[in-house]
């Protein structure tokens, strides 16, 4: 076991550290050398079929579901096609409105989750084309789907998903760019710009691992004193807040609630008390001012606010107690980088609290029963 962990104390931190490599692997051979588009030869959808897509249904469980929520923001923005995201166990029992004009995107690390597999079969039975984004070659989901985008993250052992999530995000970006080019919805200049930024992500992920480790280890000590915490953000930051809060809950057993920042005053603000830790994700410029005004509401209750923002964002420092700075990328791609410090915070919180990092109580890596 020790050898399998490659010198790391836990599989989770090993897998967190493998993320730059995983990002590189999923991009390999998929970005055109002139940065004009993506090569997804494995997706056999014809131009005609793509033009006929009226709706995209994304279905998954757990962390993969959170990747799907990022997918909704990304695909709707780029493709201007309505996207629904469903938890697989909800989708399969609600008589979903799926037909031959729906593209179903199934996301699953293992490719074996029972509810997700059943949802896939349900979508197919209703005439929908199915693209699976999965990590395991030859898995049940890979075999059932019409097309598969493999995430090439390598085996993920820790129950809490890290490198699988980050590569699922990349799978979504690649699929979106592929569909967007076919639909003529992404101007050439924008395509090139996005691809150049995608290409930078492995190095930027490495920078986060190299430079933030000590800060995050120390910062996580706050969870020795608190059993509750909150993650807030808007848009894509909200999608990552969901995943950040799940990571912390899963492995450190600290109760964490993710809220769309604008929704806070409709509920959870009542629970914000003096010194309670609040993670505030602020990478989306079009809603930055709005999020800052939500942070002011939180600060008025004297909570301890930790901001997550791009390097060079000086504004945020005026409103929060501490800042986690991540390398700058396009706001569209921010989830790939913002999630890394949140994974590390969860990891160190789990270690400090003496929890079983890789095998949290009551959870399984792959849920193959209902
Ligand atoms: C379990 C795991 C989660 C995972 C979920 C979906 O609950 O503990 O980490 O996100 O299943 O698994 P899948 O293999 O379908 O992505």
Automatic annotation (TrEMBL):
The keyword Plastid does not apply. Keywords: Aminotransferase, Cytoplasm, Glutamine amidotransferase, Repeat, Transferase. GO terms for molecular function: carbohydrate derivative binding; glutamine-fructose-6-phosphate transaminase (isomerizing) activity. The active site is at residue 365. Its EC number is 2.6.1.16. Transmembrane segments: none annotated. It comes from the Bacteria. It is an enzyme of class 2 (transferase). GO terms for biological process: carbohydrate metabolic process; fructose 6-phosphate metabolic process; protein N-linked glycosylation; UDP-N-acetylglucosamine metabolic process. Homodimer. This is Glutamine--fructose-6-phosphate aminotransferase [isomerizing]. It comes from Formimonas warabiya. The gene is glmS. The chain holds residues 242 to 611 of 611 of the full protein.
